[in-house]
């Protein structure tokens, strides 16, 4: 099964669109990018087939053009990068969790974690005995089709929290329980893709992008500030950074400079 088009970290050669359709167009792409920003502002969740554009492949094109231009804008601005990673990762996780096709979810897992690092239910129960009492204690018998195995190196947080079965190097659980770990991997890969995009920008593309980079940067910066705005007048502690433990001060400084920290770090802060 092909990697679904809603996985925005796909590379250009993995998209089922003509090459000429993927050329940077500064007349069309900024409009699409702004629409994507507005959808993020409004907390929308959507799949690329649900597009305002008509015609075959236009949903995929809108994804690529909107996300692609924002990725370029984020390449040289860490605060924009942090905001974009957070928005795209939240959307990706929603899409993964709301995809009814089980095989499609397996395909996405293998794409992000590695082909050899994911066992589907068929491979899993060929390797392990479903009737082993060890599995019965975790009630996996009732979720046989939903159970998968992921190599422990891909999901260290699940391993450390002991939130799943670990047998012979495989973390075994219902597929939905791997959603958060998959999101973390998505964020890491997207950050890498953004940096690669910046490195590959030629002079012509850089000049074209710079015309709207500042505009998008300011817009995203304002959105990030507004979305995180809290009335702190009655919370004097938060205005007394001298009372922060050093670890919390470091997290506070990081989110102020980058606009984004990981889920666990946000929870701590």
Features:
269 residues, mainly alpha, 4-stranded antiparallel sheet, globular
What would you say this structure looks like, in words?
This protein is mainly alpha-helical and 269 residues long. It contains twelve helices and four strands, in the order ααααβααβαββααααα. A four-stranded antiparallel beta sheet has the order 1-2-4-3. A hairpin with a 2-residue loop joins β3 and β4. α1 packs across α2, α2 packs antiparallel against α3 and α2 crosses α9. It starts with 28 loop residues before the first helix and ends with a helix. The mean pLDDT is 83.
List the helices and strands and how they pair.
Elements: H1 29-41, H2 58-74, H3 78-97, H4 102-113, E1 118-119, H5 121-127, H6 133-136, E2 147-151, H7 156-161, E3 165-167, E4 170-174, H8 179-200, H9 203-227, H10 236-239, H11 246-258, H12 263-268
Antiparallel strand pairs: 1-2, 2-4, 3-4
Helix pairs in contact: 1-2, 1-9, 2-3, 2-9, 3-8, 3-9
The gist of it:
This protein has 269 residues and is mostly helical. The chain is 55% helix and 6% strand.
Query: If strands are numbered along the chain, what order do they take across the biggest sheet?
Result: 1-2-4-3
Q: Strand count, sense and closure of the main sheet? A: 4 strands, antiparallel
Low-confidence stretches: none
Oligomer: single chain
Coarse structural class: mainly alpha
Mean pLDDT: 83
Rg over CA atoms, rounded to whole Å, is 21 Å
Work out the number of β strands.
4
Head-to-tail CA distance between termini = 41 Å
What is the N-to-C succession of helices and strands? Answer: HHHHEHHEHEEHHHHH
Range of helix content = 55-70%
Helix count, DSSP H or I runs of 4 or more residues: 12
Strand content: 5-15%
Choose one word for the global shape.
globular
